[in-house]
Specification:
Helix content is 19%, strand content 22%. It is built from two helices and five strands, in the order αββαβββ. A five-stranded mixed beta sheet has the order 1-2-3-4-5, with helices on one face. It is globular. The termini are far apart.
Amino acid sequence: MIRPVRHRTAQAKSTARAIPEGGACLRWVRDRAICLVLCALGVPVFAQTDSSLPVPSGQPVHLSDVLLDNNPGELWVRFRFVAPKIGASVGRIGYDVASKDMEHLCQVLAVPYVALHELQPSRVVISLSDRPVEFGDTAPDATQYFEAYRLEQSRCIWEGL
């Protein structure tokens, strides 16, 4: 069954999901909006055993949440991903490589998603975490990378925070 996307405001300790639990374009195609965006961009619907989104580094990246956040005083759309291979230790994917993945995710997922839902965000935030972390919770042992972008003419422009 395909469920419609509902937008609500995200607040710490109270995550409003714009996609269903488990991410987008999984085995049962749980979120039509994300799937339509990905398919329209030529990104194949993923194999039944792999729900990873394609990124330049090739690491497995899974969409966990899309949040609409008015807390900064303006609309920010937050795309939260789990990327279990990120980290600073040897053999892990560091920030320098992961930042290219975040820019790619902004361009190929966030831009069409925002257009499809006719949103006007001041910022788009792409975050990667090596494990699921609830929005607003602290997780000192988790590795997390964040980047903010403004959208101009369907392009992600990096906003160093």
